[in-house]
Amino acid sequence: MTSFSLLAPAIARDVLDHALALGADFAELFVERKRRSQLSLLSSQIEAISGGLDFGIGVRLCYGHKVLYGYTNLADRNELLRIVSLLAAKDRRDPVVTASAFDFTRLSDRNPVALPLSADKLLEQKIAYLHAMDAAARAESTKVSQFSASALGWEQEVEIFNSEGLQVSDRRHYNRITAQTIALAGGEQSVGYEAPGAMMGWEHAALIDPRELALSSTRQALVKLGAAPCPSGTLPVILESGFGGVIFHEACGHLLETTSVAKKASVFHDKMGQLIASPVVNAVDEGLQGNAWGSINVDDEGMATQHTQLIKNGVLSGFLVDRMGALKTGYARTGSGRRESYRFAPASRMRNTYIEAGHHSLDEMLASVEYGIYAKRMGGGSVQPGTGEFNFNVQEAYLIEGGKVTKPLKSATLIGTGPQVLQEISMVGKDLAISAGMCGSVSGSIPASVGQPQLKVNSILVGGNA
């Protein structure tokens, strides 16, 4: 990986030494430069072209379990020393540790990029791509009343220094393309949406046919027009691979972060080594997949990413642990300290989180259901922190009758708790897929992948309007 410098090491050394001289147990500088570009299309016209550059430095001091955090946009020694003095004003004491000399860590880059934003001269190509999507969506049906699309990219350079001698830098590239279709017929309106993303440059677009992406969004919208009302009650549900993993992410994954575990705000905080799911469930969180949306070379505390087994054969096997989480719980760090930008202190967060592949086919799962729901595409929802109680909309749903998919449904909602759903999974499919999403928590909004193969949930409360 190519090295670069955003802050002179001599300045970083002086600032960290000053923090320790004021009695901090640990001090850290997170230096960030971010470029951003976005093109948006609406009503068959390019609506907006925007971009920008942001730079800043986050300063973190730790006094025991107490975290003090501030930031600035200036890479100036006196400004950084001033921030440290302000942060430590109420907690300063005699020095308790001494700083270590910097040892620069050179990373291997698992996420190669061909067309980075900093060298991007492809504006006309991006505009043509969005117009190709628009034309395909509108040609599919006269019921398409509106189509919107965007191409979003950002390039983030980070450099991290800490009082234990860490010095590491990383460059990250993200690209995401969105397509949203609104269909209208007889006064009824429905929406379809797709938003693939990758840790890549604009070469990501070469992997995605713009016509197929637009048609996927459009067909979602069209299939719901005139769809039958969804039945309600406790029913078996088959969740499709990919974005169906948003339920595990939201209703279970957050409960396995030491952000909640350390406060005993998670129902799983004391369940390590216990059976918390059906024995057919195996789940992981990792940052190692090359160019995956949630992958990282190094976390935002400077630790190399890794593969973390969360659940093995139904047994709770691991938590997601950042530096402060390790200090509070005693569990080893997992390279999961992440943050949106220099404006946020890091916290334990997910990367690529998914249930691993099993052995069943979708046809086998369908054949095992006499009457139930096939949730082909999940939408948004809400989750209660701590308990994992959730309420998720199904973006695209179908009725299962006699082991066969019969008709499309509208207004389907899945209601339950993460711990409950884990126990009700009886069949796990062969075809694992992951999807891109943005995850919000105490350290801001970050790219994270969700995923799973097809799953059969024996029993879950379905809300409908039939």
Automatic annotation (TrEMBL):
The protein's name: Peptidase C69
Record carries keyword Hydrolase: yes
UniProt xrefs under SUPFAM superfamilies: Putative modulator of DNA gyrase, PmbA/TldD (SSF111283)
Domain Metalloprotease TldD/E C-terminal: 232-464
GO cellular component, one term: cytosol
Pfam families: PmbA_TldD_1st, PmbA_TldD_2nd, PmbA_TldD_3rd
UniProt GO BP: proteolysis
